[in-house]
Amino acid sequence: MDVFDAVIVGGGSAGLAALMELSKLGIQAVLLESGKPVGSKNVTGGILYSKSYPDGKVYNVEDIYPDFADAPVERRITRYYLNALSGSKVYTIDLTEAHNYRTNFAYSVLMARLNRWFAERAGEEAAKVGGGIVDGVHVRDIVWMDDGARGSRSSIIVTDELEEFGARAIIAADGVNSEVALISGARSKFKPEALYQGVKCIVRLPEDVIDERFDVDGDEGVAHLFAGDISRGHNGGGFLYTNRDTLSVGLVYHLDSLLKSPIEPYQLLNEFLTIPVITNSIVDEVPVPREVDRNLPREEQLRIRFGLSRLLKQYEELRYTYYSKRARLNAIRQGLYSSEEEIKARLDDVRSRLEKEYGVQFTNDYVELEYACKLVPDGKRAMMDKPYRHNILFIGDAAGKGIFVGTRIEGINIGIDDAARAARAVARAKEMNNFSEDYMGRYYAHLVEESPYTDDIRRIDFEYMKIFVKASRNIPTEPFPLFLRLAFMLIQKTTVQELAAKIARMMDQSTLLKIIESNDAYVRIPMEVAERIGIEVKPVAAIRPLSIDERVARMRIREDEVPHIRIRDARSRFIKAMVHLCPTKCYMMEVVGEGAGRGEGVRAKEEGKEGEKGVKAVVSSVILQHEGCIECGTCSLETEWRHTRGEKGVVYEYG
Amino acid sequence: MHVIDNCKQRLKVSVPAPLIDMNGDTLNVAVMVKLEPDLSEGNVSYNPDGTLNRSQTKNILGPHSAIACRAGMYAKVCYDAWVAVCSMGPPTAEIALRDAMGICCADELHLYSDRIFAGADTLATAETIKHGIMRMGRRIDLVFSGHRAVDGETGQTGPQTAWKLGFNFIGNVVDYSVDVSRRMVRARRRVDLPGLYTVLEDVECPLPALIALDPGYRDNYRRVSERLMYARLEKEARRRVADYKNHLKVWSAKDLGVDLRYVGLAGSPTIVYKVEKIPKAKASRRARVVGSSSVEELREVGNLILNIALGEK
Ligand SMILES: Cc1cc2nc3c(=O)[nH]c(=O)nc-3n(C[C@H](O)[C@H](O)[C@H](O)COP(=O)(O)OP(=O)(O)OC[C@H]3O[C@@H](n4cnc5c(N)ncnc54)[C@H](O)[C@@H]3O)c2cc1C
Ligand code: SF4
After folding, report:
1. How many domains, chain B?
2. Share of residues in chain A with pLDDT > 90 (%)
3. Closest alpha carbon within chain B to A294
4. What is the ipTM metric for this complex?
């Protein structure tokens, strides 16, 4: 049997960083990832931060990957805004200063792509010490054996794909829906109040159009957050980040808020996309082909279809080449075209041929490339007290990490910091050949405790709040509840700032959070602010968001014939909520009322007469079709939930 | 399990001693491959009479040869084997060798190329390859060949080469393993019995042996260490392919020291008397193209399916 010093379960940004660090420390480590290739299961918003704290060191992405400068990141985020929305009205607050607070740099990233690069680097480093990455393998179980005097327990890893093998230390980097956490009993599943559901889509837009529309130059980018009238009253917010030639657009909601009055995430996303400021950001000119004349001979119809699709492809390539500085120069350098004018002339030519020969019309719409959804652990409520168990160390989302307070959204950087600490704990354990909970686990917990992020997750940073309040000084405070208004005023007055800070520090975190994460803060106040001082934004065009069926049809999901989720109680309130909350409509309601009562019951419900004398209530239950599952984890709490087997399930290209 | 160890006696072939026995304990493997026309869409070119236009059709490593290479890679990953790929063919066949190297991370490539070899049938080809394998500079323990080629009935080449080399032969292999210390190979063969069940048969025989792979061969890396090794060799293979010429040896008939009576056209007893095209059967099914956007037409399709499902038609 193969035995390894360290086995990492999960190849997201956290697990990959752990592999890189362990390998640098000379430890033979193997990373197992169920997706194939690595990256295909990872989703983020997302902005990747590098931070520095005055009171301690954090391990940043550039510390882990020395050649991070070559990484395929998107744009350096140099401006950061919060937008209060109400209908078509918008009030924008510039939060760049808050964004820059303790930030070395921040890049917009596409997680699937970036993780592939991380995997290349970490894989190379690992190979030097006999380790590496094994993708397409799903860890199903872990069995522990007692390992001699020190109480150190080494373990056997059981997967769906490979022969069993041994591990002295395990790093669990298997994300928010960690199976390792449950197998080892290190924690129970996260509760809805400790989770967010994030839903997003990637929108395509030529690079130059992004530059112009957001007033940035090629390498720079902006981030916009949104609050107010976007959530049908749920607690949560929206985001729009500029990537190189795409935008990441999405929403993040408190899961408990969604469970209270369930609503389809794709519905919320579509409503968000059709808000004028968002529509205006994502709209693009897209070709709409005409229906092929069905009276033509069939061969002719086929000929037209093929010709059209070839020309459309050419058009798209030319357009994305012409409207991107980089692609333009590249194409000319490679000798594909002699000059920019030539590309333009070709583009115009193809366009007019599309119009004349095929009757293609050009209208305003948007181009959605990928739809995604995933749970996010809310660090302040989800962070594990004891991020270890037996010979396992938990890192990143699996350990419930993340700073999500108001406008601060950080998860990737924190998982990377965890990874570096876990690697050091394993290296020390290896030296003493003691991988026990007491020796390795507790040392890891101690290292995590030393991380400035840990304090930051536990306590709301008053300095950050000060910057935030300063940035919002122009907003009217009348809509605020009295207490918040007072706090706002106090914080703004430099003379009493210290006092305010003291009060804030004394206040119990949960009280503070109740204010910051209240429905008032998420919805009512932003709406009123927008109403009062916002500017009216007119939509430049109408777009047609994709339906969920269209989205699912475009997704790459490798069907796993073995079901990986089993409903425990098909009639529970929670499972019924999944009919709405599952992002890909895997849950369906089925009416199972008995006998004659059945039809009556349905009718009664429709007519609102349920419960009236002689009318039976509808008995319904829920069925699950796991084939469309994208492993977001939303339904995990009341199901027997696993990821799909290796290589199966969703494959994200962008993430 | 059957034990095959009688072919040598039965066939009464005198086996020449290997020229050099460099390394007693590593497993030395040869993979025989063939350059074949790429019959995938868009790459084939036909003559007006419907026969293959060989000069216009792109040539690649044959798909069955590629399977043999995968088996070679398996030996490299699991037994740290030394692997050479060989082919008899025109100078352009080095493309097939290069592609083969990409699959099995070969240590050496051998091309047997000489005008004299032209017109060889499978027996003459086997003679050439036998000499090539004997002159690889190592005692070859295991040879892999594909099931057949896509452009001719060449399924005999493997068995004939085994016979000429005096190696044990196992055909239709879907899985194999080697016990290096006992010098035994164990293989699972797929035996299709017409009209009966398909049988999977486990057989064992001593090395040296020649294995012809079934198209259903699957390399199955079940251990972490094998997966890691595979990943490493895959990367190494890419590097080697980039300078494959440095690993390539081209042999003429003279280099190989073949007896000219047994190779090329002279050594080919097979006479292709006549090639007859089997007339195509007339299609008995009618097909209609249905647009995906017409509700009417789709409904019609739906009804048809429904009828079938309901057993009405
Ligand atoms: C919509 C959204 C917006 C976000 N915005 C931001 C942002 O702007 N900035 C930021 O820093 N963070 C953001 N986050 C959070 C951030 O994306 C995560 O914290 C981070 O990606 C988590 O990385 P991870 O490696 O811990 O977990 P994951 O990326 O989830 O990786 C876990 C991996 O483990 C694998 N796995 C799971 N179980 C097994 C098993 N049994 N066997 C084998 N493999 C297994 C999975 O396939 C997966 O690849 C956002 C998250 C979402 C969803
Ligand atoms: S079935 Fe899959 S996609 Fe649907 S909620 Fe559950 S985990 Fe998410």
Report:
1. 1
2. 76
3. B291
4. 0.82
